[in-house]
Amino acid sequence: MAMWNPWRGCRKCSDGCLHCYIHKGDARRKVNTNNIVRTKDFYKPVEKTKNGSYKMKPGTVYLGFSTDFLIEEADEWRGECWSMIRERSDCTFLFLTKRIERFKDCIPDDWADGYENVIVCCTVENQQNADRKLSVFKALPIKHKCITAQPLLERVNLEKYLDGIELVVVGGGSDTNARVLDYAWVLDIREQCVRKNVDFEFRQCGTHFIKDGRLYKLQTKDLCRQARAAAINYKAAERSI
Question: Pairing with 143, which of 9, 110, 122, 168 sits 20 to 30 Å away (CA)?
Fold first, then answer.
């Protein structure tokens, strides 16, 4: 899977941003994350070799994982990105956003009911933001929709928003000061996905993790491994036409 960051930098805008990995990494490098700037990889999807073939191979492309693809400061650049996404129909571009309310202001004129090669993932972390963001998300013309609840901060009911959703990803925070993730909340969302026949993935435990009433402190390197070991991912049954 390829990574494409046409710009970098972000501003905290949601309850889940408190211990953002982008801000933490930038702080170590003494970089101001609030400065949103284009990167040298801006044209990465359409760069070609000497023989005229694309350098970026076909497949899934993680888009804007060092920023938010819908952030306001990138409005003047996003049009070129949509053009490259159209050109690279052999790639599937996936981006996460905490700014789903800006979506209609950020799509190209030919979007219609969505591009087949774009997956949009709306991120939520608590019930308040789930209700606010997903009520917008469910009405948007997007062909492939996912929800990420990471870091999950409390028990959240997503069930009424799961129609048309292909995947729900759940996980905890990975910071020394991260807020607690309770395994019961994870299992609750899994059951909602099972009832609605939606794929579910437990991506990572939290640094501070409660299971069966016991609080554990886990090392960052073990968070994803422990989540996989739980073996609770769910693959939806094929829907009849």
Answer: 9
Q: Give, rounded to a whole angstrom, the gap between the first and last alpha carbons of the chain.
A: 31
Question: Is the Cβ–Cβ distance between 198 and 169 less than 8 Å?
Answer: no
Distances (CA, A) of 218 to 141, 184, 208, 234, 239: 40, 17, 7, 24, 38
Provide CB contacts within 8 A for 156, sequence distance 6+: 124, 126, 127, 130, 149, 185, 188, 189
DSSP state of 14: S
Pairing of strands 91-97, 59-63: parallel
- Tell me whether the omega of the peptide bond preceding residue 151 falls within 30 degrees of 0, making it cis: yes
Residue pLDDT, tens place only, 110-125: 999 999 999 999 999 9
Sign of CA dihedral 184, 190, 191, 192: positive
Q: Side chain identity at 68, as an amino acid letter?
A: D
| CA atoms of 110 and 107, how far apart (whole Å) | 8
